[in-house]
User: Which sequence fits this backbone?
């Protein structure tokens, strides 16, 4: 028997838990034991007192994030078991141990049964982001588990939770190494080299979830002029160059991102004059540029973090894609994305086609894209399918 504080659900609110959904919302809870603190491990029971799950308690609409539907201790053995399972998946899809691809997502939150935990692996460095206080409080055990599982393949563990812990928690995390340290910030993806800035960069340092979509873009790039909007550190840009693009323009509002983009291009294509980068607001650049392109990438940051701003987000996507349709040549190809979890595939698709209609362009779908296999979607948690993408042929 476990001895965690108890969370009791209202009558009839246990059905989603019995379907293995990993979240319990505030409206489902009837009462909780006194003295609970943010991030505590709790045991969840139905209205009749039957055990349902173990998880972390949180402040906010999601009250409990479930770690196990079995009555068990959340100890080092638990972390070893769960992270080993995640590692086994990455080996099965030929990412772990692949010399041409030494960067991948090792743990993807709910997709790997560990809500609130992200771990990206960069050439021997595991970069961890905790999105809940509960996960943050277990970071030392998680680090120990990583050491036991990965052995000599693990050179360092870097905690980058400073910007991801909910502000209401009262915790003030500081980014830093939990194990080891490394001066190597260069990783390899599909044979291309890139700098990873996990110290100061966005997310964990690179947007790993676009790996397969970048590879697809490479096959469409030969002989084309390419515009990569919201380029961050240039991933799509140097794939386009390897694919034989005749010209590549990279645009991002961050001067630091543009600096790293130029470094990445130089790493892979030293002295190549096909590439130019611009540190400028995306909408301003597209408003002021008269140049037309054969291939355009629109990969903005999340316009909607939650449902409350969904309408404004959809307006933003419509405006952005309208600009893209205006600047693409007849016969051009548009890669357009949304990484906003609050935006459904249907809403995104409708918004893009409203933009196409307003721009007076005839459009056909070539591909419908999503996140790669190292960002798995728990079949009981469809909300985990956050990345939406369309590849469009524009007449």
Assistant:
């Amino acid at each position: 028997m476990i001895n965690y504080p108890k969370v009791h659900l209202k009558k009839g609110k246990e059905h989603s838990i019995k379907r293995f959904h990993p979240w319990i919302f505030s409206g489902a809870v009837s009462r909780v034991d006194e003295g609970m603190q943010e991030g505590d491990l709790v045991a969840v029971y139905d209205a009749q007192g039957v055990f349902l799950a173990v998880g972390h308690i949180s402040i906010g609409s999601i009250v409990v994030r479930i770690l196990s539907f079995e009555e068990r201790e959340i100890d080092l053995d638990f972390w070893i078991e769960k992270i080993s399972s995640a590692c086994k998946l990455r080996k099965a899809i030929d990412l772990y141990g692949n010399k041409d691809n030494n960067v991948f997502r090792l743990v993807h939150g709910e997709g790997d049964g560990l809500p609130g935990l992200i771990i990206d692996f960069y050439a021997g460095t595991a970069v961890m982001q905790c999105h809940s206080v509960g996960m943050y409080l277990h970071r030392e055990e998680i680090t120990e588990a990583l050491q036991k599982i990965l052995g000599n393949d693990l050179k360092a563990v870097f905690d980058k939770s400073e910007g991801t812990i909910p502000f209401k928690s009262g915790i003030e995390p500081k980014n830093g190494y939990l194990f080891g340290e490394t001066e190597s910030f260069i990783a390899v993806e599909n044979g291309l080299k890139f700098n990873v800035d996990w110290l100061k960069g966005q997310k964990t340092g690179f947007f790993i979830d676009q790996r397969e979509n970048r590879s697809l873009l490479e096959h469409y790039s030969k002989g084309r002029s390419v515009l990569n909007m919201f380029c961050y550190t240039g991933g799509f840009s140097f794939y386009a160059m390897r694919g034989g693009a005749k010209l590549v323009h990279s645009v991002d509002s961050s001067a630091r991102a543009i600096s790293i983009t130029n470094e990445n291009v130089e790493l892979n294509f030293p002295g190549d004059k096909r590439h130019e980068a611009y540190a400028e607001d995306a909408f301003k650049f597209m408003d002021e540029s008269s140049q037309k392109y054969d291939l355009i990438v629109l990969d903005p940051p999340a316009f909607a973090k939650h449902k409350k701003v969904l309408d404004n987000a959809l307006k933003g996507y419509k405006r952005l894609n309208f600009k893209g349709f205006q600047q693409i040549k007849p016969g051009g190809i548009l890669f357009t994305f949304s990484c906003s979890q609050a935006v459904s595939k249907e809403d995104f698709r409708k918004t893009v086609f409203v933009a196409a209609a307003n721009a007076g362009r005839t459009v056909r779908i070539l591909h419908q894209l999503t996140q790669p296999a190292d960002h798995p979607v728990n079949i009981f948690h469809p909300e985990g399918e956050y990345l939406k993408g369309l590849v469009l042929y524009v007449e």
DSSP finds ten helices and 20 strands in the chain. The CA atoms of residues 223 and 262 lie 21 Å apart. The two ends are 65 Å apart (CA to CA). The longest helix spans residues 310-327.
